[in-house]
Amino acid sequence: MSAATLLRDVFGFDAFRDGQQDIVDAVIDGRNTLAIMPTGGGKSLCFQLPALVRDGVTVVISPLIALMRDQVRGLQAAGVAAGALTSGNTEEETDAVWAALEAGTLKLLYMAPERLGASGTVQMLRRAGVSLIAVDEAHCVSQWGHDFRPDYLRIGQLRRDLDVPLAAFTATADAETQAEIIQKLFDGQQPASFLRGFDRPNIHLAFAVKDGPRAQIMNFAAARKGQSGIVYCGTRAKTETLAQALREGGHSACHYHGGMEAQDRRDVERRFQQEDGLIVVATVAFGMGIDKPDIRWVAHADLPKSIEAYYQEIGRAGRDGAPAETLTLFGPDDIRYRRQQIDEGLAPPERRMADHARLNALLGLCEALKCRREKLLGYFGEAEVTCGTCDLCDKPAEVFDATTPVRMALSAALRTEEWFGAGHLIDILLGANTDKIRQRGHETLPTYGVGRDYDKRQWQAIFRQMMGHDLMRPDPDRHGALRMTDKARPILRGEEEITLRRDTIRAARGSGPKVRMLVSEEDAPLLSALKAKRRFLAEQAGVPAYIIFNDRSLIEMAEAKPQTLDDMAKIGGVGAKKLESYGRDFLEVVAGAQEDVHPQRRKLAGRGEGEIYDRLLSVQSQLQRGPHGADKPMSLSASQLAKVAQLRSADMDGLTRLIGDRYAERFGDAFLEVLESG
Ligand code: ADP
Ligand code: ZN
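Above: the input record for the complex with adenosine-5'-diphosphate. Below: its predicted structure, written as tokens.
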């Protein structure tokens, strides 16, 4: 079968995503390949599909058992012969994998790298007819990276022993890691390399200055109730209190941090993977090993430590390609805390400089005056950026020429010999009459009271932005007193001007980012019904919801409203196997009961209402697209229809109460006719 056919029939996708086709072609051709794609870019397809085209077995090396099991389950649900040999297997599972290998029916074999050390593994793989090695998370081979897995070093030997092509995949793109991967996996021979851009266009970016941060997070979550999300916090204690608050707010939420027992952490990971709509409030310890494609939002209750960390953390959202949202909160305390962390760390000075630079890049993003995405991707070296999905594209920032107040602030700091923090400097600028001012004689300074054009809050915003633009830094040796940086000098000397945002404080007091629904208001109830069906099927099968269909497929169903199985097959993510397994179930939700007798109808069997039900159903299907067949299709669920059939007193009011205005308008008269004649 051709790659295009497999893409449609097995994976249920209409088209390759950006970059996938070239990688797939190279891997099918049997070239050594290194592909670097952002998380959620669709790496797995790039080895799974070639594995089906090529003869023999593809062995997939992956670092995390949970991820392997997940992929195997997904493949099996799509009708692909895949198995895993991991320490998490039951004996039956292992036996089944061996049997399929012996029979030559297995196409994909997932293995943990540890297994490569076991005696006999290589012979076994050779006998099984392995024709391709795929390495997921290939950066784990890098000794200097944070995800180093010593067992990954065995993969190079495996490639030499089996003498088959190898395809390596990672989302980590820095040059040193790439060089190390090529050295360790390909013996230094340059593979065909593919580097895909860093943009994740389906992720909405937003930042807000902290202003009642607890309420800001609660609002953000409330606007997305029922959707899976992660809240990242700076401290362990906060994860617990915030999770508690979210539960009190009616959410399903739990906390996660490195101080918890391993078993408790695994429980949270499993629940998150399995459940639809759980919020995990976590420290950054929650990340590696999270492979849930339908995380709909990520919020930062505290500022991340660098622009790289930010990108990685928000990148966990929306891997399925459906819209996802993010919100990052920050304030002057965050900036002080992150600077202090770097200054007090044990890293050598050059490293600390680099860390400050990475933090600066993130602060620049926080205080951006224009498109966030442009700024973020610009940092990663991408110039061509189209956005329209960030808070500043939604609503442009209000800016003002802040050269004068910034000079005032700098001069207040310099005239007090850089020994004070923002609070006291603002008191000086406002001409406040405090003990501290009188004790130090600061009321005699020329800057005393020169800043009365701005109020205290505005000055706080100015100081925060100055720290964000790295014009002033807290000095750890002076208890966090603000000191001017070299970057500020030209502004002080009158050689440069500076523009700041006027609106960040006011915006923070609003309700946060506006709610963006996954589908139009019209289609929202149908989407909920489809999700309910999915949850039911997932629970029945004991698999995560997205294994049945991912959010993107359900959204498409809710919008396209397939009326037949043929229509259903055209929905993205609906391959032949899934169509057969679940097509009918979901079609029923969209288009109402199909020929088979519906359980709701069955309950009415043998009673007068059964016949009424049938007539209601036929009336409904005649009017489904309105009296002239030109309107949006509408239909009641089987259980609602059953309730209509059982209505005692048949009048328009009672009917409207039961099925709602919109349905009553379309079907009311016709239903009453049926009920009255029955
Ligand atoms: P990663 O690159 O992070 O490993 P995955 O391989 O898990 O990403 O893919 C992320 C999501 O994108 C999955 O839900 C997958 O089903 C979906 N996907 C992959 N390729 C396509 C495609 N060509 N069209 C639509 N969705 C795709
Ligand atoms: Zn933008």
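Notes for the reader.
Confidence is low (pLDDT under 50) at residues 507-513.
The two ends are 55 Å apart (CA to CA).
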